[in-house]
Amino acid sequence: MSEARAEILGRVRAALADRPAAQKVPWTYGQAVGTGGIDIVARFVDRVADYRAQVERVDESGTGAAIAAAVRGFERVVADPAVQDAWPGAAEWIVDDGLGAYDLDRVDAVVTTATVAIANTGTIILDHGAGQGRRALSLVPDVHVCVVHAGQIVDDVPKAVAQLVNSGLHTRPLTWISGPSATSDIELDRVEGVHGPRTLHVLVVD
Fold first, then answer.
1. Integer-rounded Cα radius of gyration of the chain
2. Strand, helix or coil at 29?
3. pTM beyond cutoff 0.85
4. Which of 80, 102, 107, 117 is deepest in the core (most CB within 10 A)?
């Protein structure tokens, strides 16, 4: 150890000498966290909004209209057959018949459902089964509209993982989404849409 480093660390120890020892925080990996009694749907909505995503609560009967409003003005909206069958009049749907990267880049928006959502982190998980389409559909278009049912929301990550494991979905490629795609440079300037949708619109169906 260099003399300068030893001197600096010595000063730090001296400055902290009269401080009480840090208390050990008990923790068991995988332990449930919970939401502290806060309604999990309300917590999820709050967390999703923190990520600068657009989020709104709708009832089951109003889901189609909410989707239509979210994609209003878009000419090219893609979704897999399950979404198109569930809400046929919500958009002029484009069929994904193996659209390549160039064609997907020209799509205005994608509409998917979800597999599970996490209240404490505002995270949505897709397993790319029925209603969600292949991974490229939710990663290339600039706008992603995601329909999440309230019953799919769990409070914390351990519960979400347990649900995926218990259903066998953990063996599939999963996409975990926490807000719109975003990154920042060394100056901490936030840039959205660099490696995924610039806009995430979440419809929480109660």
1. 22
2. coil
3. no
4. 117
